[in-house]
Amino acid sequence: MRGEASPDRTAAPVRDNEVILSVRNLSVEYRARRGLVKAVNNVSFDLRRGESITLVGESGCGKTTLGLSIVRLLPRQADIREGQILYRRDGREIDVVSLSPSRLRQFRWAECAMVFQGAQNAFNPVLRVWDQMWDTIRAHGGMQKAAARNRALELLSMVQLEPRRVIDAYPHELSGGMRQRVLIAMSLLLNPQVLILDEPTTALDVLTQRTVIEVLRRLKEELGFAMIFITHDLAVAAELADRVATMYAGRIIEIGPVEDIFYRAGHPYSVGLIRAVPTVTGAFADLVSIEGSPPDLISPPSGCKFHPRCPYATERSRTEEPELVQIGREHFVACHNWQAVRADVEARRSAAGNGQGSAPVVEYTRDVQEGA
Amino acid sequence: MSQPILELVNVSQVFKWHNKPVRAVDGVNLAIGEGETICLVGESGCGKTTTGKIAAGLRRPTSGQVLFRGRDIWTLKGKDWQEYRSAVQMIHQDPYASLNPAHSVSDILSAPLFRHGLVRDRRQARERIYQLLELVNLTPVEDFYDKYPHQLSGGQRQRVSIARALTVNPSFLIADEAVSMVDVSIRVSLLKTLAQLRERLGVGFIFITHDLAIAKYFAWQGKIGVMYLGRIVEFGPTPQVVSDPGHPYTRALLAAVPEADPVLTRNKERPALQSQNIPSLLNLPPACTFHPRCPLFVAGMCDTIEPALTEYAAGHMAACHVTTGNVTARERVEV
User: Which ipTM value was assigned to this complex?
Assistant: First the structure.
C-alpha cells in the first residue's frame, strides 16, 4: 500500500503493440451426460506484450475454461473443438493447441504460467515453499540450485514477504494472503511472458486483497509480463485491467479499454455487471440487478444468448446472433442495440452529474488538523 | 432509538486453544431496536460471526449478558425461551451446506411450522409456504414447492433459507455473510429481497459482512459496527461511518476497498499502514490492539492505555485516543 498520492494510473501504459498471444476462434466443449456443453464458443482476442486483460462474467460464463485452455490444462471431459492459440516469442510462433506433450511441458510455466483459484489448495502441504519452487525449476532445467534460490528469494521479497522466513516455511504456516503471494512469486520463477490469474483476490480480506493488487501492479511494471486476469469482481477489474473482456455464455460479448467498458459500455450485460456493484465512496446509489440466470449451455437460447434477460431485446435479438462490431478505437461489442445501450449509459452519467471518476474522494481533514 | 429488543451487554467469548485463552469477542456492547439494521463489518477472525451466534443464542458467552426485552436469555425457560428463539433467527453463509439435500422445499419450510404449532394441517401449511415463497420472491410459488435443493441455484437456495428463517415470524434476522457466496448480479436482488422484508414485515437485521460496500448499501438507514480483534472499534450511523470514519482501522479498510470505477479507484488516497500483519489472537498487543499497524500511533499513549469507545461525532463512537481528541497535538509532541 502506498501512502503518497499516486499519479493517474489510468493513463494507458506505454507498450509496444507486439501481440504475444493470439487466441483465434477458440471453441471448447465439455462432454456431459445430457449432451455437449459449449463452454467457450468461438472466442478470439489478442494479448500484447506487457498488457493486462481482465475476463469478467458470472460463474459458468466460460472464463476459467478459457484460461485453462491457454495452458492446456482442461479436464479430461473437455475438448478443444476448433481454433488456434498462437504464442509468439523472439519472432517464433507456435500453436499451443497442437503442441506435443513434451513441448507443452516446456511451454507451461516457462512461457505461460497460471495462478489457480484457491491458494490454499495449490500447495503440497508436506513440502516447504523452497522444495516446491525447486521442483518447478528442476523440471525445466537450466538453472543452478544456488542461482535458483537467489531468484526465489528475490521474487519473494518482490511480493512483499520476508524471503528468508517464508522460503523454508510449510504452507500451513502462512496466511491465505501470504500463500497467494508465494504462489504469484512461484509462477514468475521462470520469467514467463504471460501470467494467467484465476480469481487471485477472491476470498481474501480487504487489506490483504489490497496488498495483492499493489504487488501485481508493481510486478507487472517491473517484470513486464502480460496478464490475463480472471475475476467476477468488477472492482478488481477496474483496478488492474488495461482492457476488459466481458464473457457471457462462452462468448466474449464486449472487449475494450477499461475506461470504455466502465464509462461507455455498449453491451447491456457489461452495464448490468457494473451497475450491480456497490461503491463505498460518495453518496448512496441504488443498484440494479440483472434479472434471470445464465442460460443452459447444452441448449442455449436462439439468437443473442442474453436476450431472455435483456431489457433491450428486440425481435432481431431473438433470431440473429450478433457479431462483435467495432464501436470505438479498440472497443468491440456484440449487441444489435448497442447505440441505445450506450446512449442510456451516457444519459445516466450526465444526469448523475459526474464525469468519469469525479465522485468525491474521501478526505480525512480532521486528521490533518489534529496530527499537525 | 426505540426501546432495544435485543441487547448484548459487555459480552466476551474466550475459547481455549492448547490451554491458552483466545479472546474471540471482547467486551462487546450492542443494542438493537425494532426494525433496526446493524451491520457488523471486519476481517476474518475479528469475531463478527461469534458475536452473531451469541446474539442468536447459539453460543453462550463466557461473560456478559444477552438481554431479550430486558431479560437475560440464559435465564429464560419454557415458553419464554421459545419466544426468544422464534424472535431471533439466523441465516447462514453457505446455502449449499445449510439445506438438507434430502428434503424438498416444502419439507424444509413445513417442519418449523408444525414444530412451533403455527399451522394445524397440511392445507394450512401449504398456504403459509406459498406466502413465504412469495415473500422471498420465489415465484411462481407452485414451481418451487416440490423442488429439492439440488434443483435450485445458489441464489434460490439462499432464498429458501431466508424463507425458513421467516416461518416462525421472527422480529430479527441475523444474516451472516448471507450474500457473499452468490454471484454479483444475484447479490443485488437478494439484498433487495432482504430490504423488502424490512419494509413489509418490519424485521430488524444484524447483518454480518466483510464487505464495506455491501454494508453501506444495506444499512444506509441503520448503523455500522466495525470490529477488530474481537472488539467494536467504531460504531455509528452508516452515512457518517463511511464518509467520515473515526477509527484509523476503518479508514484503512475504506481506503483499501477497490471500486468499480477505474479512474476513482486508481487515484484514491491510501494511507499506509505500519504493518500488513494482523496480530494473533493468542498474543494480542497491549492497550489499543491496532497500535502496531496504526499510522496515527502515539507512543506512550496507544500502547499503554486501552481506548474506550468515545464520541467522535454526534451519535458516532470510535475507540481511538488520537481521533477522538484524547491526545491533542501538544500532548503528542510532549510524549
Answer: 0.86
